[in-house]
Design a protein that fits this description.
Elements (H helix, E strand, L loop, with lengths): L12 E3 L15 E6 L3 E4 L8 E6 L10 E6 L5 E2 L3 E3 L5 E4 L1 E2 L5 E8 L4 E9 L5 E5 L5 H17 L7 E2 L20 E2 L2 E7 L7 E5 L12 E7 L1 H9 L3 H12 L28 H9 L26 H4 L21 H10 L18 H7 L13 E6 L3 E7 L1
Parallel strand pairs: 3-11, 12-15, 15-17
Antiparallel strand pairs: 1-11, 2-4, 4-8, 5-7, 5-10, 6-9, 10-11, 13-14, 16-17, 18-19
Helix pairs in contact: 1-3, 4-6
This protein binds zinc ion.
């Protein structure tokens, strides 16, 4: 994007400091163009995940090399590692920006002698960081929807976990294909990459780029998600990108995939209908408070036992369209399934520091309504609750399940 020709909806704004000075000698910067690093989200007083990179252009639109650019912030917007950078042979200059202690939008100003441009970042209140890296094939609107889905978790998971520094010679495993190593060399606290690929055998394939250790352990995640163009189009046209990303981020955080001994009575290969449940006391208390006190059909909290996506979701016919239920897609398009206190407590059981007060209001669907719903025709747009199959791959590349969404 260009600061000289701002377009609607961009986070960057142009500040022409001395417009009269635009008629200047040839070596003067005529335009400061953004290359990468604007619009990032990070915790207060933390360095952004990616550097801010700009390019200076001359009157003819060619890179202006050897030009001094200044980078400055107001005190509430933190600081940069260098306040003055000379552009390189392709007219570029970059800085690392550490945010200030102000929740919300913070501003970094870049100036040449005659031009200025502002770049923004958003500081979240939570110290828990999710860094979403999206394929260039997504539109800004689609990226915004996916970001909203991941960021929902930073409202309820509030504690920082130690960063993971990748060894200098680290190469992602083959299941992660062209996963991009973080520029900073560190994962703080979770990295999610979403890539669009036309040649996938399933609409979606998930992989963890790091070898997992023991289940039920807190560690930074690097989740690599591949999706087909038609899957993206479908999610977008039905306004479900946000809910899909919120659900998928929950799995990335370990929901259903790293439960280990927290899960009881998983369904074995031949079995159907085991009394699969998640008996963590605080999670059960949240289930009871949401109306589950009257539920007597099994042991609490009931985990999906009858679908192909069993053992890794709340039981769909009991919890309805809660965000981590196997039936989370049953709501109307765009209605954002609730992230309930039940799920928040399940995250606490994994070891996360959480803020339960940030959970969405949620009550269990009335008994029987789910069974009826299952028999009804599919929802608007023909979105079936059982959806298309997607391979779920994690833990050293093994396919461990087929997820229908
Ligand atoms: Zn799922």
């Amino acid at each position: 994007m260009s600061f000289g020709a701002p377009r609607l909806g961009l986070l960057a704004v142009v500040v022409l400091l001395h417009s009269a000075c635009l008629m200047v000698p040839e070596e003067e910067v005529f335009e400061i163009e953004f290359v990468s690093g604007d619009g990032q989200i990070q915790g207060r007083e933390r360095q952004l995940n990616e550097p801010v990179v700009v390019q200076a252009l001359d009157e003819d639109g060619h890179p202006a090399s050897g030009v001094e650019l200044s980078f400055s912030t107001d005190p509430p917007s933190g600081s940069v590692d260098f306040n003055s950078v000379t552009t390189d042979s392709i007219g570029r200059a970059s800085v690392w920006w550490t945010l200030g202690d102000l929740v919300g939008r913070q501003i970094l100003t870049v100036r040449s002698r005659t031009l200025g441009a502002a770049i923004s970042a958003t500081a979240r209140e939570s110290d828990f960081d999710v860094h979403l890296v999206t394929d260039p094939g997504f539109t800004p609107e689609q990226v915004e929807a996916m970001r909203a889905g991941t960021e929902r978790w930073t409202d309820v998971i509030t504690g920082d976990i130690p960063d993971f520094r990748l060894p200098p010679d680290y190469r992602p495993p083959s299941r992660c294909l062209d996963a991009k190593k973080p520029t900073s060399g560190a994962i703080d606290d979770m990295r999610i990459e979403v890539r669009i690929r036309a040649d996938l055998s399933a609409p979606m394939v998930l992989a963890f780029c790091e070898a997992t250790e023991s289940p039920v352990s807190l560690r930074p995640f690097w989740l690599y998600i591949q999706v087909t163009p038609s899957f993206v189009q479908r999610l977008h046209s039905e306004s479900r990108l946000r809910e899909w990303m919120a659900h998928t981020t929950g799995h990335g955080l370990g929901y259903g995939l790293f439960w280990g001994s927290l899960l009881h009575n998983p369904v074995d290969e031949a079995g159907v209908g085991a009394d699969t449940h998640f008996p963590d006391p605080a999670t059960v208390a949240a289930f009871d408070a949401a109306g589950g006190a009257a539920w007597t059909e099994g042991t609490k909290v009931p985990v999906e036992n009858a679908e192909e996506n069993r053992d890794i979701h709340w039981r769909g016919d009991v919890l309805g369209h809660e965000i981590m239920s196997s039936w989370y897609t049953m709501g109307m398009p765009g209605d954002n399934p609730p992230l309930s206190a039940i799920t928040v407590q399940a995250m606490a059981a994994l070891g996360y520091e959480v803020d339960v007060s940030m959970a969405d209001p949620y009550t269990l669907p009335a008994t029987g309504t789910m069974a009826e719903w299952d028999l009804e025709p599919h929802g608007p747009g023909g979105w079936p609750v059982h959806g298309e199959p997607a391979e779920l791959i994690y833990d050293r590349g093994h396919i461990v399940g087929i997820v229908y969404r």
